[in-house]
Automatic annotation (TrEMBL):
This is Cysteine--tRNA ligase. The gene is cysS. Residues 374-437 form the Cysteinyl-tRNA synthetase class Ia DALR domain. Binds 1 zinc ion per subunit. A motif ('HIGH' region) lies at residues 37-47. The keyword Repeat does not apply. It is found in: Cytoplasm. GO terms for cellular component: cytosol. GO terms for molecular function: ATP binding; cysteine-tRNA ligase activity; zinc ion binding. It comes from the Bacteria. Keywords: Aminoacyl-tRNA synthetase, ATP-binding, Cytoplasm, Ligase, Metal-binding, Nucleotide-binding, Protein biosynthesis, Zinc. Belongs to the class-I aminoacyl-tRNA synthetase family. Zn(2+) binds at residues 35, 230, 255, 259. Monomer.
Length: 492
């Protein structure tokens, strides 16, 4: 019997604003689409957190014995700067600034995206389609929307008529917005746009002469609107009606709202049963932004090459830190927080190692079954990873009691306990045991700190030649020293 049949999974649905019991359209199967990155720059930490949330959701469905088709797209055209319909495509702009072909930009940052997700132990999606690989499908959807009288062409561009659509449907249902209020609060177009209404959005944009990303269409040489690609790819691989659509909270409006409108205009039915949205990540209590310097890239956490953290941290520690907050909660990233997370992570890994050495007793004095169900109850409550982690530390307490001989488990219960701990720690949360590398890191850290102390003594004795020699030879080995008010630290 599949595990999902004995568990009552509830999911917070952004469409209803409530937790709902998850019932798949097809028993035993889950279709999930998640909006992927626009590949015009290095993936940022907020992206990693969002995709990590859905990686854990994907992992839990697999753990429950569901067959899952997980589709996560790559946006490589059509995403205009500032998320509007007028202006320059983000990838085309990056290509112009760096004097590259657009697909060179796409390739560079798609590789970076995959490299970072591999570092953080993400499972790959079932399908990872690209917007440029589905231009034909997008053109066909536009034709259908025009035929339904909800799309219109203007000077080579095609727009979705939101007001016309709203006569029979509800535009704004996902985000809780009212079309009349939106129209009232929007300035008049004053003839500066081809749109009939300010809320109309582009399905196809005519390419200006300088625009280097363009495809032929019945309306003009141009490119598809950003919202259209997800409608085309989700329906192609999951059908007109599928189980779950996910993404960051910032995509709820207008991106996901427009997706719903496009789907309903084409098929006459709502496309998705459950809409899931992951919340944002802040840094030291403030919004992350490159412009203010309040920003850190995922790789900078791993290397320690930043001015925010006291040292480098492993990918599993960073992953453990992020999963200590619920995916719908704002999470603040700071040095103190990840240092504390590292201590918790090491405690958990030490317990997992100790668990292998425990011998079974003649009887069980721990209610293992109740603890195991409490772990499932946490994940069944809208994938509540912080509560699951709390239950896993209750499991750590059990390990210590068993190791000290204060409690016992019989052979069957001990095997099942170890299997459950392994399943939740490694399979569901996706953590990796880095104790071997940690041991090597401890030795390296001790050696480098000894050299740092020798360098300090050399500088105190005004032996700057020796001081510089130690620094330069460490750099040659790939170890960089950083002098600060609190002393000298290093990064690899």
């Amino acid at each position: 019997m599949p595990l999902y049949s004995s568990q009552n999974l509830k999911i917070y649905n952004s469409l209803s604003g409530e937790k709902e019991t998850f019932t798949p359209i097809h028993e035993g199967n889950v279709g999930m689409y998640v909006c992927g990155p626009t590949v015009y720059s290095n993936v940022h930490l907020g992206n990693v957190r969002t995709f990590m949330s859905f990686d854990v959701i994907f992992r839990y469905f697999l753990h429950l014995d569901y067959k899952v088709r997980y589709v996560r797209n790559i946006t490589d055209v059509g995403h205009i700067v500032d998320d509007v319909d007028e202006g320059e495509d983000k990838i085309a702009k990056k290509a112009r600034l760096e004097q590259l072909e657009p697909m060179e930009v796409v390739q560079r940052y798609t590789v970076d995206f995959h490299d970072i997700l591999n570092e953080f132990n993400f499972l790959p999606p079932s399908i990872e389609p690209t917007a440029t690989g589905h231009i034909i499908e997008q053109i066909e959807i536009i034709k259908t929307i025009i035929d339904k009288g909800i799309g219109y062409e203007a000077n080579g561009s095609v727009y979705f008529d939101v007001v016309k659509f709203n006569e029979t449907n509800h535009y704004g249902r996902l985000s809780g917005r009212n079309i009349e209020d939106m129209l009232t609060n929007t300035r008049d177009l004053d003839g500066q746009s081809d749109k009939k209404n300010p809320q109309d959005f582009a399905l196809w944009k005519k390419a200006e002469a300088q625009h280097i990303m363009r495809w032929p269409s019945p309306w003009s040489d141009g490119f598809p609107g950003w919202h259209l690609e997800c409608t085309a790819m989700s329906t192609k691989y999951l059908g007109n009606h599928f189980d779950i659509h996910g993404g960051g909270m910032d995509l709820k409006f207008p991106h996901h709202e427009c997706e719903i409108a496009q789907n309903e205009a084409c098929t006459g039915q709502t496309p998705v049963n459950y809409w899931l949205h992951a919340n944002m990540l802040t840094l030291n209590g403030k919004k992350m932004a490159k412009s203010t310097g309040n920003n850190i890239l995922p790789r900078e956490i791993l290397t320690g090459e930043n001015t925010i953290l006291s040292k480098a941290f492993s990918a599993s520690v960073a992953r453990f830190f992020m999963l200590q907050a619920h995916y719908r909660s704002i999470l603040d990233f700071s040095d103190d927080a990840i240092v504390a997370a590292e201590k918790g992570y090491k405690r958990l890994m030490e317990a997992m190692s100790s668990l292998k050495e425990i011998t079974a007793g003649s009887k069980s004095t721990i209610d293992f079954a109740a603890w195991k169900q409490s772990c499932y109850d946490a994940m069944n409550d809208d994938f509540n990873t912080p509560i699951l982690i709390a239950q896993l530390f209750e499991g750590v307490r059990f390990v210590n009691l068993l190791k000290d001989g204060k409690e016992t488990l019989n052979t069957e219960d001990l095997n099942n306990f170890a299997k459950a701990m392994h399943g939740f720690v490694f399979d569901v949360l996706g953590l990796e045991d880095e104790k071997v590398s940690d041991s090597n890191n401890d030795k390296l850290e001790g050696t480098v700190n000894m050299l740092i102390e020798m360098r300090k003594q050399a500088r105190d004795n005004k032996n700057f030649a020796l001081s510089d020699q130690i620094r330069d030879q460490l750099i040659a080995l790939g170890i960089q020293l950083k002098d600060g008010k609190e002393g000298t630290t290093f990064s690899i």
